[in-house]
Structures are given as C-alpha cells and as structure tokens.
Specification:
- The strands form 7 sheets. Strands 6, 7, 8, 13, 14, 16, 17 and 22 form an 8-stranded mixed beta sheet that branches.
- The chain has 2 domains: 130 residues, Fumarylacetoacetase, N-terminal domain (SH3 type barrels), CATH 2.30.30; 296 residues, Fumarylacetoacetate hydrolase, domain 2 (Alpha-Beta Complex), CATH 3.90.850.
- The chain has 12 helices and 26 strands.
- 18% of the residues lie in helices and 26% in strands.
- It binds calcium ion.
- The site of calcium ion has 7 residues, from loops.
C-alpha cells in the first residue's frame, strides 16, 4: 500500500500523546508538519515535527537510532533550515511522516513506554522557540482571489471595470522580496515612505497611515525546475513540499501612490510573516476539493483535470495592546473568516504559469496565494476591503474601531482543515505593529 493511501486511511487514528487527540488541536497524528525549533536545553536550531502540545526532535530521534534515512540523509535533521531535508525528495518526506505516524500511534510501545527516550526526543512547545523554517531563495506573490481583485480594482480604479481583462486569463503575480520574510512572532515596524495627500500635487515623506494585512497562504517548492524547463500544470503538485499561512503586510497609502506602472514595491517589501510549521500536501490530501469553475476556459498550458483546491478555513484576529484602550470584555476580535478553496487560480496553475516562460524555481521558494477574500463583506482578507478603504471601520470587541492597524495592534492568522473529530491546523501566524522609526 502506498504511503499516501496509508496516511489518508488514518482518519480515525489516535496517539498515545493525549494532547494530540484533542479535537481542537492543530497538530493531531494526521498532520505531522515540519518546522525548525530550538529550546531551553539546546539552543541549536534543528528539525522538529509538531504533535499535540509537543515537538518531536528529529535530530535527537535519529541520534537515538529511531529514525533512519538512506545515504546520510539524517544529517539534515541537525540543520538550521529545512532546505536540505526537503531536497531529499518526496519519498524521504513520506517515509519520515509514515515512520512518525507509527511511532506516535496509540498502539506503538517504542516511544510510549520508554520514559528515557521520550525525555530525549520530545520537547514541550511551550519551552521551544520556532524559527523561520527555510532559507527562501525567492518569494513570489500571486493575486488569485477574484473577489479580492474585484474589490481592489473597484476601489483603486473603476468599479465598472474592476477586473482587468488579463486577470481571467492568467494567475497574475509579481516577484516579491524574500529577504524580509520573517517567522511568526517577529514584530513589524510601521514603514516610512512616500505618500500623496488627497488633492496634493506632490508627495510627502512620512509614516504609513494605512497599514494593512493580507490574509494569504503560501506553498513551498519541494522540487525545483531547471532554467528553460517549464513545469507542466499536471505535474505541478509534485513540486510542492507543503503550505503555510502568510500575512503580506501592506502599506496602502504608499501602494496607491507607487504601484503604477510596475506594481507594489516599498508598500510590500518591508515585511511578510509566515507560520512556522509547514503542512505537507500529504496531510492536506483528505481535504482536496474542486476549484471554482473557470470562465473563460484557461489556455491549454493552464489546464488540469480533477480537483486542485483544498478546504482550509482561515481567520484573522486583531488584539490591541495600547495601554489607553480597555481590555475587557474581550481583547481579541475575529475580523474575518474565509476559505482557501474559493481561490480562482490553483497552486498548480500558479506554478505552471510562473515557469512557462522558462523561469526556474528552487527548493524553499515561497509562493503566496494572494489575499483570500470571500464573497461576503465579513469574509474579505484585508482591512482595505473590510473597511472599504477606511470608510466603514471595523468595530472591536474591546471597544473602539479600526480603519487600518494602529501601533501596538497584534494580528494573528489561523487556518485549519476540519476532519471528523480532528483538524489539520497550521498553528498561528502573528505579528505586532511597532511605531515607525520616524
Ligand atoms: Ca499579497
């Protein structure tokens, strides 16, 4: 039986690690996402897999002789990024997940009944620091939500021609800035830049006044392609290692002034936050669903058969931390709820389009989905849309309102696939706004 089928059969599986069986846990035995962590006992960054409220230390597990990979592959578990492990290929990822799925199974005594081994290879998530899991050679951001593109086009251009003619023919994207991709928890400094006040002939220089989020996911390239050799749409998912949550922080006032004619630059390049655990496509497989119907039918190189979307519930929460604001009754407001499955263009189509020119990709490349907005106003993926460019502020549970983010605001994205009695989750993707360095 293939590893894929073995894993997808495992919906009813339980772990001896009780926290993993909590239906609200993001990290049941069905998930087993990969990340990079360090902890109080050992400051070295190394590969871990999340399970319940713990992390399995793969470097320690390999050192204890409980996790083998051919041809010295296990050395990659001691590395500070996942790239080396990912480059080993899909068979290696699958064999590690399958092995862990057995070791952590309620019926398996190897780790369950060996307290000494458990103390060496299990780390409490509460005692660990999670790091950026990848060396990211390139970061591309797409623009694949029809609802988002329509909303932004209506606001920034002409409501009667909100969607430009090329949008329905290709997954529009741009090459973003990989150097400023940061791990969840990293504070975000409000950017300075050029702003054009309403009615003014020339811009002023100052702190962004319209700081925003973009609720996105991203996929991570697991197998690159050579320069000049495009990836076919039908093969594209074989090149994907897994997915993360992504917040594409955006300075809307800087963006509106700079984006014509070449697209966003300083409005986007100051920071992009990703969640620390990479959920594999194998773990997402039971949640595969059909993508939206595409009209007009895409050109041949963008066609694939079958289902290529995934049912991933997504939310964004805002927590203000300013001392002059009350913190009761609830300091946190869920500002939007949406779903990845509504995205018009699939990840496979994005990758096929990205490489059709001959552009190469590399292991660890990050490909953002674009802001994921639903059809209703409570499912929009940015404050720009939720507040309609500040005109209809969001009311916070703790009192007060928000048009855009204020200093001290903390923004957290969450995402999960709902199974029967369990969920495959992404953990959190969070960041707090620091005042501009003015
Ligand atoms: Ca974006």
């Amino acid at each position: 039986m293939s590893a894929e089928r073995e894993l997808s059969r495992a919906a009813s599986k339980k772990s001896w690690l009780e926290a993993a069986n909590d239906p609200a846990s993001d990290f049941p035995i069905q998930n087993l996402p990969f990340g990079i962590f360090s902890d109080k006992r050992n400051a070295a960054r190394r590969v871990g897999v999340a399970i319940g409220d713990a992390i399995v230390d793969l470097a320690a597990l390999a050192a204890a002789g409980q996790l083998a990979l051919p041809a010295g592959g296990a050395q990659h578990f001691s590395q500070p990024v996942l790239n080396g492990f990912i480059a080993l290929g899909r068979e290696a990822w699958r064999s590690v997940r399958l092995h862990l799925s057995t070791l952590l199974d309620a019926a398996c005594a190897t780790l369950r009944d060996d307290a000494q081994l458990r103390s060496r290879v299990l780390v409490a998530q509460a005692d660990a620091t999670l790091h950026l899991p990848l060396d990211i050679p390139g970061y591309t951001d797409f623009y694949s939500s029809k609802e988002h593109a329509t909303n932004v086009g209506a606001m920034f251009r002409d409501p009667s021609k909100a969607l430009l003619p090329n949008w329905s023919e290709m997954p529009i994207g741009y090459n973003g800035r990989a150097s400023s991709v940061v791990a969840s928890g990293t504070p975000i400094r409000r950017p300075m830049g050029q702003l054009l006040p309403p009615g003014a002939a020339r811009p002023v220089f100052g702190a962004c006044r319209k700081l925003d989020i973009e609720l996105e996911t991203a996929f991570v390239i697991g197998r690159g392609n050579a320069l000049g050799e495009p990836i076919a749409c039908s093969d594209a998912e074989d090149h994907i290692f897994g997915m993360v949550l992504l917040n594409d922080w955006s300075a809307r006032d800087i963006q509106q002034w700079e984006y014509v004619p070449l697209g966003p630059f300083n409005a986007k390049s100051f920071a992009t936050t990703i969640s620390p655990w990479i959920v594999t496509l194998d773990a997402l497989e039971p949640f595969r669903v059909a993508q939206p119907v595409q009209d007009p039918p895409p050109l041949a190189y963008l066609r694939h058969t079958g289902a290529h979307a995934f049912d991933i519930s997504l939310e964004a929460r805002l927590t203000p931390h300013r001392a002059d604001r009350p913190v009761s009754p609830s300091p946190t407001t869920t500002i939007t709820r949406t779903n990845f499955k509504q995205l018009y263009w699939t990840m496979a189509q994005q990758l096929a389009h990205h490489t059709v020119s001959g552009c190469n990709t590399r292991v660890g490349d990050l490909m953002g989905s674009g802001t994921i907005s639903g059809a209703t106003p409570d499912s929009f993926g940015s404050l720009l849309e939720l507040t309609w460019n500040g005109a209809r502020p969001v009311v916070l549970a703790s009192g007060g309102t928000r048009g855009f983010l204020e200093d001290g605001d903390e923004l957290t994205l969450t995402g999960w696939c709902q199974g029967e009695g369990y969920r495959v989750g992404f953990g959190t993707c969070t960041g707090m706004i620091l005042p501009a360095r003015g």
